[in-house]
Amino acid sequence: VQLQASGGGLVQAGGSLSLSCAASGIIFSINYMAWYRQAPGKQRELVAEITTTGSTNYANSVKGRFTISRDNAKNTVYLQMNSLKPEDTAVYYCKAFRPGRSVYWGQGTQVTVSS
Predict the structure, then answer these.
(1) Pairing with 108, which of 18, 44, 53, 94 sits 20 to 30 Å away (CA)?
(2) In terms of C-beta density within 10 A (0-12 exposed, 13-18 middle, 19 or more buried), how is residue 102 classed?
(3) What is the mean pLDDT of the chain?
(4) pLDDT > 90: what percent of the chain?
(5) How far is 35 from 50, CA to CA, in rounded Å?
(6) CA-to-CA distance for 27 and 37, rounded, in angstroms?
(7) Taken in order 99, 25, 59, 46, is the CA torsion positive or negative?
(8) In 3D, which of 22, 41, 2, 27 has the Cα closest to residue 79?
């Protein structure tokens, strides 16, 4: 199983970034997908998740600014991040899971937001 995240980088506050996570080795359509992030010295936290039917859930801190989506034909999950803030700086990880059955993590991609 591979979850290949990309799209991170350096952006000024107020800017936008789009992350992608391409999955292989799993049946993508039956997996929930999620983005997590971990800032230095902090625990990894949920940013957003999307179910197999497209229902979404967001951390309060990103509601209205971030959008998670999935393309089952491309085995890819996306995270569109707008109005970025310095506190969004973190390593972002994608996760594929089937509740109670399996969990897979991708490598992280660094997002840095300068003030």
Answers:
(1) 53
(2) exposed
(3) 97
(4) 100
(5) 9
(6) 24
(7) positive
(8) 22
